[in-house]
Structures are given as structure tokens and as C-alpha cells.
Design goal:
mainly alpha, Arc Repressor Mutant, subunit A, three-stranded antiparallel β-sheet
Amino acid sequence: MLRYVVQPITSRHRRYLIQIQAASQEVILKLSSLPTTPTARIWSLETFTKEFDHVLAAERPLTTADVQILLTYLTRDKNVAAMQTSPENDLVTIKLGSASVKATPPTITAQDSTIANLQTLSMRLSDQISLLNDSILASEATARTAISTSSPQKSRALSALRAKKIASATLEKRQASLEQVTQVLFSIDDAATQVDMVRAMEASTGVLRDLNKQVGGVEKVDEVMEGLREQMTDVEDVSKVLVEIGAEGSNVDEAALDEEMEAMLREDREKEEAERVKEEDAKKAKLLESAPKPPEEALPELTSKESETRLPVSGVEDDLDERLRLLSLSTSD
């Protein structure tokens, strides 16, 4: 009978688990910024390792075992990834889904495996192109070194140039192949976008069909609009009647209103004139009070003849006004 012994979790295991959790958070963070196109969320094991092996530290990449544990954590505990191995070529297809908390694990299809295969081919071609470029530069440097010495090594220089020529021809082929693979991947994204558009249009057609049924067709719309126009006409007629009734109930003699207005204006003018006269009288009284008084002398008694020739009262008042005017002018000077 087999017995399983559970080993206690050591501090080393805890630190490793913390590192795996931190790496998964970095992957999920990058997942939230990826586009929703099919090729952007599908990897093979090779492309995934190359993309995320430095997720924790650039100087300390993850090992193959670390990547396997990270993928197990993402698929089993986080439900943000799915992993499947093809029985035909042992290609491991990895598909990342949504980064939400309640995400459902994505499903891998045959199309996803094909995309993963293309992604792997694209990565390998890119690596080969990089190596061929380095080989071309190295061959050219070797040829220059061989002919720049005091005793030129012609055979060595020719061999280096021959290797450069072969590498250049191979480089052109690899670049053409990479362009074709890249074009296929772009075409897949384009086709997936078209599928989404057709599905959205199909759903929109159903929505419009249901809304048109609720409307009832053109005839019903014409009937509704005709009824609306009739009701609006009735409302306008009622408004006109109400306006006419209000105008009849408010008949007023305009002449009487004009007379009353004129009387009010006349009363205001009279008040203003009275105020003006009052102010002038007050100014005259103030000037009289401030004027120097002449010395009082005993006036001689008038004879009967002189009293007859005395100025009338109106003349005295005129003389008083003239004196006040002269006094006012002298004061102002």
C-alpha cells in the first residue's frame, strides 16, 4: 500500500511561491494592455518563454521549470490562461483570456494551434535573421582583416567573402519568409475583425427588425403623424379662442387712460415747480440773513406831502429784489 508523505513548506518554498505570484501579476498586468486580436493573445511555449522569462528581473530570467509552474498557476488558480499540447507535433499552445477577477478560462481551438505555430515560425525566422546579420558582419570583418595585414591572406579573404555571399542570399530568403508569415498573421487578425463585424451587423439587423415590428410599419407611422397633426391643430384653435375671450374681457377706454396719465404728469410737474420755488425762497432768506445790516438811524418823520410821494409796496419789493441780486453777485465774486 502506497503512503504519501506531505513535506512541510519551508521558507524557501514560500519565497518561490511569492516570486511565482509576482510573475503572474506582471503577466496579468501586461495582458490588460494587449489588443483583443487573436494573434496578440496566443503563444507557443517558446514564444511565451521568450516574452515573459525576464518578467521579474532582466538579469535573472526564469528557467523552463519556472515558466511551466507559472503557466500552471495562471491556468489553474487564476483562470486567465489555457494550455494545450498538440499530439501531432508536441506544440504547446497557450491562450490568454480576460484579466478580470471572475474570468472564465479560454478555450483553445485548432485555429489557435495554427496561430501558435505561425508565431513560433515567426520567432525562429527573426532569430535566424539576427544570426545571419551577425554572420555577414563577421565575414566582412574577417575579409578586411585578411587583406589589411603586411602579408595579405588572399585565400582567407576569399573564403570570408564567399561565406558572406552565402549568408546574404540566405538572409534574403529568410526575410521573404518572415514577411509572408507576418502577412498571414495580419490577414488572420483582419479576418477575425471581419467576422466580429458581420456578427455585430447580424445582431443589429435583428434589433432593427424587432424595433420596426414595434413601430408597425410606414402606414402606422403615417396614421400616428396624421393624428398628431390633428391634435396640434385643435390645441392651436383652443388657444386662439382663449386669446379672443381674454381680449374681449379687457376692453378699456383708451381716451380715459390717456387723460388719467396726463393728469398724473401734470400733478408731477406742479410738485416739481412748487419744490423749485420753495428752494429759491430758502436761498433768498439765507442771503438776507448773511447780508450786513446798515446802521440803524432814526428816520425823519414824513410830511403829508412826502407820504403822498412814497413809493408803492410793489416798487419797494422790486427794489428789494434788485438789491438781493446785486448782493448775490458781489458775494459770488
